[in-house]
Specification:
With 286 residues, the protein is mostly helical. It is built from eleven helices and no strands. 49% of the residues are buried.
């Protein structure tokens, strides 16, 4: 493989992975807004579909599905998925993706501080800008997101941040991700049993909602992670972290074009502060 071909391959894999991650927000939002599926069912089906696809992939590679990963990581993955789905009942795709991404990065930065990292200069300015943008987005007002939904999405981001931190020593990424998805299935089964019949008089999700959940789990989650981990070895750590800043922007564009969701000035300014601040912090880290 030539250098040019390798570069094109990495760029294609990276682009597809970012589109997949942004599509998770769009799929969840449209499912909960336009179909009869409830948040608990969406979560359970998404996790089960992701587990099935990754389990089949690991089997083709001669690996046992639960050989890697851990129960603590699976618990964090499940917590992320649950809060993510319940939050998207009342958040636009853009606002949800921005809150999620901001919370993930701030959680990991907070752990760095606890572990002894020190923020100075550009990095400190970046963190303060990101926090200010998050506060601005959540301040009461006509265009502010509902507080309960925003809190749940922040919790989803915190759970994903902890999941990412635990994953640093989890071994081969695809095997660990597959093992974690498989381990979420018992949690998802308990969730389904606990919420059966509570969401509506008819507890059976409609076909459209089920299809959105399956695509979210099997394609944009399961295969999306595979694409990202395939591209990751060719990317510098700073580059990989910066590229992920595109996910909220893609989700915002998709929400506006595909779901006819409004993009307010508050969202635009908060996005600039949050994503710009995180970019400064990432670029300022040696």
């Amino acid at each position: 493989m030539t250098a040019a071909t390798s570069t094109v391959r990495v760029a294609l894999l990276t682009t597809l992975a970012m589109l997949a991650f942004a599509a998770n927000s769009l799929l969840c939002r449209v499912a909960l807004r336009d179909t009869e599926i409830d948040a608990a069912s969406f979560t359970s089906i998404r996790l089960a579909a992701g587990a099935l696809v990754l389990m089949l992939l690991l089997r083709t590679r001669g690996q046992r599905p639960t050989a890697a990963g851990s129960w603590p990581m699976a618990a964090m993955l499940f917590a992320y998925a649950v809060f993510f789905s319940f939050a998207y009942r009342d958040l636009t795709a853009a606002t949800g993706a921005l809150l999620l991404f901001g919370a993930v990065q701030l959680t990991m930065m907070a752990w760095g501080l606890v572990s002894g990292e020190r923020l100075r200069g550009v990095r400190l300015a970046g963190v303060l800008a990101a926090i200010a943008g998050l506060v601005w987005l959540l301040l009461p007002g006509l265009s502010a997101p509902p507080p309960a939904a925003a809190a749940m999405m922040l919790a989803a981001g915190a759970a994903w941040g902890v999941y990412s931190l635990l994953g640093r020593g989890a071994g081969e990424p695809i095997a660990a991700t597959g093992g974690n998805f498989v381990r979420t299935v018992p949690f998802a089964a308990v969730l389904s049993l606990a919420t059966a019949g509570l969401a509506s008089p008819d507890p059976t999700p409609d076909l459209g909602g089920v299809l959105y959940a399956v695509v979210s789990g099997a394609v944009t989650s399961g295969l999306g992670y595979v694409l990202w981990y395939a591209a990751l070895p060719a990317l510098a750590a700073t580059t990989a972290a910066t590229i992920q800043l595109s996910v909220p922007a893609i989700a915002a564009l998709g929400g506006a074009v595909l779901l006819a969701e409004p993009i307010t000035w508050r969202l635009v300014l908060a996005s600039a502060a949050i994503l710009g601040g995180i970019a400064l912090t990432i670029r300022g880290k040696k």
